[in-house]
Amino acid sequence: MEIKATTTPQLEWTGDALAIGLFEDATELTGDMAKLNEMLAGTLSELIEETEFKGKANSSASTRVGSNSPIRKIIIVGLGKSEELKLDTLRQAAATSGRLAKKERCKTLGISLPMCQDANATATAMTEGIELALHKDNRFKSELENQGPDVETVDLIGLAGSDEAIARARQICSGVILARELVAAPANSCTPITMAETAEALAKEFGLALEILEKEDCEKLGMGAFLGVAKASDLPPKFIHITYKPEGTPRRKLAIVGKGLTFDSGGLNLKVSGSGIEMMKFDMGGAGTTFGAVKAIGQLKPDVEVHFISAVTENMISGHAMHPGDFLTASNGKTIEVNNTDAEGRLTLADALVFAEKLEVDAIVDLATLTGACVVALGNDIAGLWSPNDDLAAQLTAAAEKAGEKIWQMPLEEKYFEGLKAMHADMKNTGPRPGGAITAALFLKQFVKDTPWAHIDIAGPVWIDAESGYNNPGATGYGVRTLVNWVLS
Ligand code: BES
Ligand code: MN
Ligand code: ZN
Question: Ligand 3: distance of its center to the CA of 314 in Å?
Fold first, then answer.
């Protein structure tokens, strides 16, 4: 698929489908829209009337245009109230246009939407919308269902000069798609070994430094928490560290840490049927987002040094599994009573955070499908954000807003650490049920000393169920665009 900013005005554009955006209660056609309607022999006003189209956000309609017309189909997408126009409105409108064009078997699509902020920001949002809406993961299908032709070219009308922004948006999307593919791949296909191979391929492609610590290396570093989780798996754990270094002195140094459980059975505190155990291939979503960010940053080449880290393993059961109640010692010397083997993500992250802090970076952000409690609190669309550093929290909130990815800051209520107090060890890995996402964040905090740090729980937005009524079910690639915006900020 080709996406380009065309200099052709809306009224002169020719192709299979023309998509236009209309604001709420502004469906009276005036100016160029009236001319377009005239050119299409009144098809536009008929479509608006017949479908009772009101321009509400997320509404759309399409129809065939008379055969003598320079376009075959007309698509209208609602933009909501003009005073509430946001980049995300345009992202969604472009996505809807792309999906409808595909459904209507159109190979060429022209999209004409109003501008928000400036041409580059508008083109970026639209490119993301189209690219991510039309991406379909058919890697595991032996046969493709009859799905019609693909959209081959997309012209963004009225955004001439933003081709550079489009190219950059597509690089970021390639990272989002990688994250989706890693998360969607099942645990018999995406393993610690294949994750290490993916890291190698990324490092090679973009000329990045790669360090993979094997089990023995992790033992030497005293990563008892990570290795405790890895004990029962027949697959070797892989501690992955990829480094992007800009030319010259970096403006700042950052670390991104992703939870990398290629499968979470719960361990001996085995997940029961109905707990969603069959979905626990997505428990490496944090690592998937991290690798997606590697792919984007590797192409964008910002003036910032970034370390990408994931302690990758499975949480399994076997005769050499860690026992519920075992004491583990993390690489910072802290001891942990594992009162629940299913709270494994925080154990792997503990050693990853200690490792990240030794790199002397300016800030550390971790992403993790950490708790069901966060999904209960914020639902499937919104990630939870915890940080003792308000400045870092604000940076991430702004980066997420720009990306159109929903995030909500949650309290790091110190008092709740009481719930993690252990009798003989420094702490337990699990507290009481209430505030479970908060105690998880407080647990992680024990493994970062002075570096500004933030934790993002992506257990909800990592995946969209097919039954939820969303347009793009499956792995979302949530977080890649937020991370990229943050690194560039
Ligand atoms: N990977 C899960 C969290 C999770 C659960 C993500 C459901 C998405 C959907 C994590 O390792 C886990 O099992 N957490 C437990 C913690 C509990 C034992 C304190 C949970 O949330 O139930
Ligand atoms: Mn678990
Ligand atoms: Zn888990």
Answer: 9
